[in-house]
Amino acid sequence: MSPFELAQPRSLPAALALLADDGARPLSGGTALVLMMKAGVLRPTRLVSLRHLGLETIEADGELRIGAMASLRSVECSAAVREGWPAIARTLRTLSNVRVRNVATVGGALAHADPHMDLPPLFIALGARATIAGPDRERTVPVEALYAGYLENTLKRDELITRISIPSMGARRAAYLKCTTRSADDWPAVGIAVLIGGGEVRAVLGAATDTPTRLVAAEKELQGKIDDAKALRRAADAAAEEVQIESDQHGSAAYKKQLIRVYLRRTIDEARRATH
User: Fold this and answer.
1) Please, are residues 191 and 177 in contact by the beta-carbon 8 Å criterion?
2) CA distance 147 to 143
3) Residue 276 has what pLDDT?
4) Is there a contact between 178 and 94 (Cβ–Cβ < 8 Å)?
5) pTM higher than 0.85 for the full model?
């Protein structure tokens, strides 16, 4: 691993100023970044720690607001999350292992832009928005707008995700299921998140494409017909055909197409049984 400077700013403006320099990278949990540095994929000359910026809070007052530096484990164990947004807590239980979840952060999991991550498709299905701080202004975007391609986000070099905001579930229900080819906490070959209820149907695919992808054709098939078995079969077929599937070490494109058909139906059933 190449030598680097470790900066530990105590304010958000100071962190953003440090990130403006060439060769600087933000350091949140470091679970992915350090591995990429060890492999020589990334060679930053400065790491800017985000640990002392006060971005660890989890608040719920109608909507859920998660600070970007909140650990995955703290979100998983949050009473507010478990009560109001239980699909998030259920999803986190099979995201890697508890040692990683104790260190990895929500902001890092989103900014990393690995399409195999479990949280992005679920957050997109839930209508989550990311607040992004820059040197001149703060902006808020839908989580799906964070992604430009494989391991490529849309953040500028001197921008940071500071918070994720998720609307109240109300009477809506959500679920996320994934198919792994090894242990249950492994990277998925396919992951699907759905939101149903309140006149809405959202379905989001992860792992099989370069970025988390809304299954628009499937959503149209299911609109107003979520309990129709024939509509669900049509939606499953539409989902498998509407996206460009990527083969990788977790499975061929043909295999993943079949997984999409199966797991869309399973995830809809899981959401029907959910309490929220």
Assistant:
1) yes
2) 8
3) 62
4) yes
5) yes
